[in-house]
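hiii so um. not sure if this is the right channel but i have a protein structure encoded as tokens and i wanna go backwards to a sequence. like what aa goes where. can anyone help
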């Protein structure tokens, strides 16, 4: 590319008189030189990060320190130094070949210092790993940290040292995910299912579990232990492969999830908002590539695994006939975005002459695409509905991809989409988006989860849809990473826009981006497709399937603004535990029984950790719900508010313990899942494992992470909304995602299916609201009307 630019920069011609006219485009040469300088700087930073990451928790300065120590020892105590070096030289027979005694001395000192330094490095690293295996701090009450835990934190901080960590600094120092015993896992499993079974069924389950733990479970555990010895995480690769990539159903609604715009908008100009968002996306992408994003720490000491951040951009889930594949391209192949507008696709660069385009420049490029409507108004139905192929079942999409997109023009265009950093959709319409309106937030949530079935590229790691008034929603593919990663990205985008708009205006009074435009105007390139009739038929079928899925989705968002975590904390309860008990109470009132409940918990305290399942249903939670129902009904024998309070706190404590166990790698479900995979590899049918994994999660819940990495001194706006959600996991169940915003707001995203007669998302949301009211009224804290 640089050679082509230089050919244009230098031009000469021969006049009729034979004179040579030579011209130089100095601006273009400067751009090429700046681009080369930036590229060299990037390579240097990549090399530096690789070295620092490899030697952590050591540092180059510690090597210099050891060299200084041995040099000073030579000067201050020549006799001792001489004996030490003679002893060391006995291990280095090649030194006899060196003619100069000075050379022997220098090599001896350098090699000895290097060996001591490397030994200290590994000792320090394994000491840190051993320290991080300890998870007792998770079980300490908030604000009541014992002295031993405080000392442990001090030890961790001391070993980590006074460094400025980069994104992956702590990866090699994170502990491996522990492998529980089969006996402990079966025991914990039985405890979680006891409230869901009658005596006869429980007794039969208990016998099968004990027989499994004492028999074939031990044999399967041996194979799993062998995997654990050679794998830093015995779960994650199988979890990605079998839970996500082997799934053949459509990923739209069934797997992908959505995230909403959070901060109040500072412009209503679509192209300007897209330009600003793309600029900050490219900046965050560059920060990830150069590892400038700070790793997350618990209590400013305990690092979390950041491995999932490697595939935020330039990642696509490629369909396969039997199994999908995650394709992640290196950054130099993913320096553009694919933009969709009314069925047309465009290639839009994020860089020019080695620098990230400014918001005003990106706005100009996006506006060119919007203005293209005046030139091309009609798009063939096949091209318009082409993205519906990513919304159909994976096997069908894989076969169509092989037949019609594996060569020629279609392959080139598809490759541009699949290697893009992300996909941007320029939407029509101006949706209202009020943080307190259930209806408006619900409509935007549906747009984020599925759109119209053909205006999202569901295979991409991230698809960002921006409406004409600047409101945006995101749709994320789930296999490559979990929601906290995309949630962090959205927070960075919105925080930067909010902070910079406050400190230094990004937009002018007319809503357009401020700044100078110095890049060429004819950069967006429209992608072309060659779609034969057979391909158009498959696209039409895919669209029909997508529309059926969309029509069956029952989605409702509850904007709970009566009280939030501030009031819950005054009740001396964990907000998450309080909400989970409210969901149990609401589910009982909605369905009339308890069901197996899923809550996602992260295991990123371990290397390559993803999630573990928390099972909120317990004997304590069922006792609370039963007592709460009697208390609300009143009459003779009804418990008092104080008695129900006690049961609620006991249920909350049990839930917190289960959550901490999951974070500490002592959960139930991932261990049983991997044992099941081993049994399938060995061709053994295990009835106990088959029963466990076939149990439907009729209530699947997850808390959307919020405020993960807040900038210092930034005040969160009062009208913040957002969060995100997902589709129902079971055909006759609910999916509930909730986000706790500030002190006074909680948003519940409830999904189910219209085809399931027993469920109704709006009815369940209303039951959640009433459950929250009834529970807070147990306490003398911010009471609300019954």
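sure thing!! here u go:
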């Amino acid at each position: 590319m640089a050679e082509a630019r230089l050919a244009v920069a230098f031009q000469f011609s021969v006049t009729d008189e034979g004179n040579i006219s030579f011209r130089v485009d100095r601006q273009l040469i400067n751009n090429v030189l700046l681009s080369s300088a930036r590229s060299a700087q990037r390579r240097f930073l990549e090399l530096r990060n690789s070295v620092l990451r490899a030697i952590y928790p050591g540092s180059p300065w510690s090597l210099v320190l050891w060299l200084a120590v041995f040099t000073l020892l030579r000067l201050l105590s020549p006799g001792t130094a001489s004996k030490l070096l003679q002893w060391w030289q006995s291990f280095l027979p090649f030194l006899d070949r060196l003619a100069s005694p000075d050379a022997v001395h220098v090599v001896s000192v350098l090699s000895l210092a290097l060996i001591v330094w490397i030994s200290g490095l590994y000792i320090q690293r394994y000491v840190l790993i051993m320290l991080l295996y300890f998870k007792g701090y998770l079980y300490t009450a908030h604000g009541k940290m014992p002295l031993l835990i405080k000392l442990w934190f001090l030890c961790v901080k001391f070993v980590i040292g006074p460094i400025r960590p980069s994104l992956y600094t702590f990866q090699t120092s994170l502990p491996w995910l522990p492998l529980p015993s089969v006996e402990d896992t079966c025991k914990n499993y039985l405890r979680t299912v006891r409230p869901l079974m009658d005596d006869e069924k429980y007794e039969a389950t208990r016998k099968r579990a004990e027989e499994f733990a004492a028999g074939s479970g031990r044999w399967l555990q041996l194979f799993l232990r062998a995997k654990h010895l050679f794998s830093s995480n015995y779960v994650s690769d199988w979890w990605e492969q079998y839970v996500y990539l082997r799934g053949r159903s459509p990923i739209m609604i069934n797997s992908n999830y959505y995230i909403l715009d959070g901060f109040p908008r500072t412009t209503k100009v679509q192209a300007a908002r897209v330009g600003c968002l793309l600029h900050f996306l490219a900046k965050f992408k560059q920060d990830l590539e150069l590892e400038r994003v700070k790793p997350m720490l618990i209590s400013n000491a305990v690092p979390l695994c950041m491995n999932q951040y490697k595939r935020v951009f330039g990642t696509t889930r490629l369909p396969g006939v039997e199994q999908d594949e995650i394709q992640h391209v290196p950054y130099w192949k993913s320096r553009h975005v694919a933009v969709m507008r009314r069925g047309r696709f465009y290639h839009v660069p994020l860089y020019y002459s080695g620098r990230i385009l400014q918001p005003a420049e990106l706005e100009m490029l996006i506006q060119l695409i919007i203005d293209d409507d005046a030139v091309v108004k009609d798009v063939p139905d096949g091209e318009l509905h082409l993205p519906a192929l990513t919304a159909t079942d994976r096997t069908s999409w894989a076969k169509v991809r092989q037949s019609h997109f594996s060569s020629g023009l279609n392959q080139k265009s598809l490759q541009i989409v699949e290697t893009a950093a992300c996909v941007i959709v320029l939407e029509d319409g101006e949706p209202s988006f009020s943080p307190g309106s259930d209806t408006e937030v619900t409509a935007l949530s549906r747009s984020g989860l599925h759109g119209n079935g053909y205006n999202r590229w569901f295979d991409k790691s991230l698809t960002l849809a921006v409406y004409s008034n600047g409101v945006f929603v995101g749709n994320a593919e789930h296999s490559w990473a979990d929601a906290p990663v995309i949630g962090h990205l959205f927070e960075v985008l919105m925080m930067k826009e909010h902070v910079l708009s406050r400190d230094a205006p990004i937009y002018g009074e007319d809503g357009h981006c401020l700044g100078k435009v110095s890049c060429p105007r004819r950069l967006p390139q429209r992608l072309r497709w060659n779609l034969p009739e057979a391909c158009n038929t498959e696209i039409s079928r895919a669209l029909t399937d997508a529309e059926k899925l969309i029509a069956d989705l029952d989605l409702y968002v509850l904007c709970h603004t009566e009280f939030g975590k501030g009031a819950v904390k005054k009740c001396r309860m964990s907000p998450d535990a309080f909400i989970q008990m409210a969901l149990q109470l609401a589910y009982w009132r909605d369905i009339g029984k308890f069901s197996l409940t899923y809550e996602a918990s992260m295991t990123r305290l371990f290397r390559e950790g993803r999630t573990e399942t928390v099972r909120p249903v317990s004997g304590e939670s069922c006792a609370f719900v039963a007592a709460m129902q009697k208390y609300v009904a009143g009459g003779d024998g009804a418990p008092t508010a104080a008695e129900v309070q006690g049961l609620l706190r006991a249920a909350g404590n049990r839930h917190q313990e289960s959550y901490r166990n999951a974070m500490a790698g002592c959960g139930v479900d991932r261990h049983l899942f991997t044992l099941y995979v081993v049994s399938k590899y060995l061709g053994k049918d295990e009835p106990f494992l088959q029963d466990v994994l076939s149990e439907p999660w009729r209530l699947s819940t997850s808390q959307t992470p919020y405020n993960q990495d807040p900038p210092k001194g930034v005040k969160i706006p009062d009208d913040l909304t957002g969060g995100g959600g997902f589709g129902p996991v079971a055909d006759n169940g609910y999916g509930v995602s909730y986000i706790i915003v500030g002190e006074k707001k909680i948003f519940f995203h409830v999904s189910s299916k219209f085809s399931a007669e027993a469920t109704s998302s709006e009815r369940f949301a209303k039951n959640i609201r009433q459950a929250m009211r009834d529970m807070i009224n147990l306490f003398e804290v911010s009471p609300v009307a019954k």
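oh and The chain has five domains: 2-55, 60-162, 182-246+668-695, 247-553, 561-664+696-707+716-786.
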